[in-house]
């Protein structure tokens, strides 16, 4: 049929498909038919046009199916013809698809691209989440493949993975792909130079990110392995458990609050991390736990996520519970209660309580009780000054004292002309 010019009829055998005869043969893994078509058509004519012509997606789609199905011979026949086409990565995630479905084929596929002069490009190609084939290999535990890719020059200490909205918006490094599993972590840490333990462009380190992995215990790894990973990183750099990072200036303990990461919290506590360290905005880890229950905070400080526009729009997300349903919200309430109880035994404090204790002032805002008319502004100022001097005779804390120590202001109770008690509240 090919030799006598009858191949024009072949594409019409399966009407409505975007494949020609060569594409159909590849789609079904018929490598002998592919070899026949390529030999007799010499790569031109209607039997091969939709597969081999630049800009035609049919061949790339057929090749993608062959990869997912593991048709190695079909891949070897077709890929040399189209490996140089610039649109091949734009239409199909060939290598990332192979990592997902047929990791044993990745080296074979890479060889074709390498011979076409595109090896470096393929190593750097990123999927929609910013992951390269090295990142995916580590995430799925394909360690031999990861070693192969590293040997080919794959970069491993670059901030390219899209940030996890439940942690921080900053791009993440390849090391995050390996967390929280021991073997891929050690594979990376044995490289020269070693990857940085600061794993986001905004300055979060491995302990910050491991807070989000705490809830994965039982799926991506076991409890013993998780503790082994914590001990391993602590042995490499014990200062990381105290370090602030990210756009909010959080310590790892703050991320424990955001993700109810009880196991990591226990580890941090046992190794001397400060549970009352404050973030860039002056919040303690206990503050973050309580903020989830406060309904009167500004939108930028609500720890929930609004996805109506297709991406996270508001504050820091807490685990995945903020975007789940009632069953998860019930679980979240239990986790929150349990962690608050633990924090109580660990001496956790709200930031306002810490400031009050440091100042030596009473915990509750002071009150002015008067009978008769209400006090005018001068009298209120005089009373406030007396209260401050009584608590701080030397006047060491006079600079903006109420914003610093009495965020609630000072309340005055007085009896009005009508004989009833009235209240005035002074702030600022």
TrEMBL record:
Kindly state which keywords UniProt assigns to this record, in alphabetical order: ANK repeat
| Gene3D superfamilies per the UniProt record, alphabetical | Ankyrin repeat-containing domain
Q: Where is this region: Disordered?
A: 357-377
Looking up InterPro entries in the UniProt record yields: Ankyrin_rpt, Ankyrin_rpt-contain_sf
Q: Outline the ANK repeats, range by range.
A: 129-161, 248-280
Report TM segments. none
Q: What is this protein called?
A: Uncharacterized protein
The beginning of the lineage is: Eukaryota, Fungi, Dikarya, Ascomycota, Pezizomycotina
